Amino acid sequence: MKKYYILLAVFAISLSSCEKLLEKEPTDKISLEDLFRDVDGSKTALAGAYKALLNDYHYDKNTMVYPDILGGNIKFSKNTNLRLDDVYNVIQTAQSSSMNDTYAYLFSELNNVNNVIKYTPTAVGSSTDKAKIVAEAKCIRALIHFDLVRIFARPFNFTNDGSHLGIPLVLQPQLFADPLPTRATVAENYKAIVDDLTSALAVLDNTNVGVLLNGFKQNYFTRASAQALLSKVYLNQNKWDNAFNLADEVIKTNQYTLLTNANYVSSWTGRTPSSESIFEIAVDFVSTGNSLGSYYDATNNSTYRMFAASNDILNLYSTTDVRRSSSMFTSVSISSLPYFFTKKYAAGNALATPIKVLRLSELHLIRAEAAAEKSTPDLVLANADLNLIRRRGDASASTLNLTVKSDLLDAILLERRKELAFEGNLLFDLLRKKKDVTRVDATPIIKNLTTNDNRLIMPFPENTVNANRNMIQNPGY
């Protein structure tokens, strides 16, 4: 009997469009034998894996909004037809959490990627192409595991060695007859993520633009983007020397250049990657009203507009910071109250813009933090990287020279919040730095939470726990 591969997005590769990775309607089922018969089938499956990242339950909403709405950068501009409001109000339950769909969806993504990794080596075709396909698929798998472990488990440094419970580790395609998975430790989760990226780096090189020929190199995992992701992974493990070395290497390749203050705004308005974009998720021309940008669209007064910037984040910027300018936020009056919406994501059809996952500015901030924390601290370089990003945002900002390590680290964390606002990082930064969540411009009854509050970690879906006696629910649910 043929095994079947349930595809999230299997499309034919387009040869004519540089933005549409895929162009045919999804196929419900394709036998594994047929799909992975040759390398072209593997390319189709890999393209589907990239395409699947752009989904409401993944980067097209939940995983980009959740860390900012719970961390304090986002408030609601209306009271009805909301998304993630249970998370905002800290009342999520295992039965009905808004993040339950994210858990299920990301694990279905993992299953599809695992099929690519397992079956591509036996496909007919170029061994070089097959190796690159597997390498890129491992990067996608690492990214998905990284997202899951940060949402559904405590940060690595919650225990000294990461021995606390993480997420189920899925490294093989899962069939209905397979034993139900158990939760691995967070250390085991991170080891698998590091192993995938390290394995991929043995294949990818700096000239590689991805085995898929459409779009831009920033739409695929290359050596540099895999290194950038691995640097961020090490940062989340407090492995400072490793995080520093990888960020430093990517910066020094000069493949990417930091945008100037003058051209920062324009980098968010089109589909062509900017000079500092390292990895971003492409959109196609059929992107519709429920793209990520729709939820921030100040002109859309119907179903979608809802995620306004809180005064907590707005007040962190100086009046001369380009990141706070009217070019980066749209102001609109709703019920006689002013609301501001980020312009980092445009909405609808040909105007929808890619989702930026890794940027050079973040690598400078990773290098800054790691330089201050590594075995031989370099506070001079840490200050230099921090000032580079601060003064790119605000050319009139003073030059900092912080000689007290704790002050420097606080300044770097603050700059991460300003630079990476609405990009899905805030809560994870607060948790890994053991900082409390403090929300002033917020409406929930529960605004502030200490770093160890159980509600800052999402529950596993109740139906998953009930169906699997091996699963242990997170505390408090």
UniProtKB/TrEMBL annotation:
It comes from the Bacteria. Residues 352-477 form the RagB/SusD domain. Keywords: Cell outer membrane, Membrane, Signal. It is found in: Cell outer membrane. Residues 79-235 form the SusD-like N-terminal domain. One of its GO terms (cellular component) is cell outer membrane. Belongs to the SusD family. This is RagB/SusD family nutrient uptake outer membrane protein.
